[in-house]
Amino acid sequence: MRRLWGLAASILCAAIGLYIVVAGIVAHGRLERADQFASVLGVPLAIVGIVLTVVFGVREMRASQAAKTQPVEPLPLPVGPNVVPMADDVERDIDRLRRALTVAYDRLFGVSAFVAEVGELLGNHAGSRIVSIWGDAGTGKTTMAFEIARQHATEAGFARVFGISVKFTHIGPLGVLEPTASRTQLEWRDLLVELAKQIAPAADINTANVEHLLPGLLPAVPCLIVIDNLETVPEGKVAVEYLIKRFAAGPHRFLLTTRESVAAAGGGRVNERRWHGPSEADAKDYARYLAQLGTRLNPSETDLDDVVRAAECTPLLIQIIVRYAAEKALTIREVLQRLRDIGGPLGRNLWQYCYSQSMDALAEGVGSEKVAARLMAVFCFVPAGRAVADGEFYAQSRIEDRELFLRAREIACRLTLVRALDGNKRFTVHSLLREHFCSGPGRRAAG
């Protein structure tokens, strides 16, 4: 402010001096001696004023430029019962998220591009509020969601991270099913209550009021909410519709993982990305890494190729095969035999964890267990890994109603039981799913 006053005074001084000089020149010869003397004094007064104007002007310009380059102190967040400070909360939230999703890994292989892509989607606050990752069982969707939150939550502008998993069971590295909770059924409102208790532990929340109260419990700062394994909730579509309706405005974003596509339920307001798993090269590197990680397995390159081929690059299956062989002192070939045997404990657990629930959802979706079984039984009559064309698929299914067949195929593809190739012209299934279904009760159910 002082610099501005000095600049104004110098300009005024220069103006007065110039006025006196000009007036003297115009009225030359008509002025009294005193007036002529004053006119002469106006010259140095104008010079001094001009010099001071330049000096103060340069100083003001430099001060203004320096102010632009200095960092601006952020405004403090408003203080209130619904506002959480942006301190170390994200780091603590990420630790809690790791436990909630039961993820544990030292290294990841072939995921960097996908993690960066989804992280960018979450950081686009003009984009969809719901981002969904979907894909086959065991491909690492939960790990992807956690890694995306860990790497990108802060840079995407989120001040808090909350997350819950809807998994009822977890399958360990030796293929043992481990219950994650004592419940055997979960409804959408129960899930919301768990989330609400995480956000506001002291809040009086129950299934009757949670849908209405949950949006008001979230902090005013941007939050990232991770909901893992949403496909196990019978009201999955209702869940997406609820998130769209209740969180149509505001700074919060949701990251979902599911085996079933939910884009249709979102009506164009869900940004969905399918995760197919790592490439063959990355899958082989992962198998080699696991074998070298505190084991004496020492598999050959052929063994590693067999692991990747049998697992079809699925990280969960690769982990189970390698760890099971190391722990049980078995060869890779012996483990693969147990993996394919649905009558044994390893095969049975994998069927239950990876496929059983999706098969139930398929039967429920078409309204007939027999129709679902007939659709999947087509692959029992073709070699493992071979795809069938649309016409052959329909003819071999023995489903008389073409529309019912198309509906069943659509649901099976959404559930990742069936894989569509070449623009939905050919179809195939995972070789392990084929082995389990065709050697188990599924083929008999087809009639």
Describe this structure in words.
By secondary structure, the protein is α/β, with parallel strands linked by helices. It contains 19 helices and 10 strands. It has 4 domains: 2-64; 89-274, P-loop containing nucleotide triphosphate hydrolases (Rossmann fold), CATH 3.40.50; 280-340; 352-445, no CATH class. The chain is 55% helix and 9% strand. Strands 2-5-6-1-7 form a 5-stranded parallel sheet, with helices on both faces. The radius of gyration is 35 Å and the shape is globular.
Percentage of residues in helical conformation? 55-70%
Q: Name the strands of the widest sheet in spatial order.
A: 2-5-6-1-7
**Poorly predicted spans:** 28-39, 66-87
- Overall 3D geometry? globular
Number of domains: 4
- Tell how many strands the DSSP assignment holds: 10
Query: Main β-sheet, in a few words?
Result: 5 strands, parallel
Which structural class should the secondary elements be placed in?
alpha/beta
CATH superfamily of the largest domain: P-loop containing nucleotide triphosphate hydrolases
Instruction: Write the element-wise H/E pattern from the N-terminal end onward.
Output: HHHHEHEEEHHEHEHEHHHHHHEHHEEHH
Output the CATH topology of the largest domain: Rossmann fold
CATH top level class name of the largest domain: Alpha Beta
- Figure out the total of helices: 19
Annotated CATH architecture of the largest domain: 3-Layer(aba) Sandwich
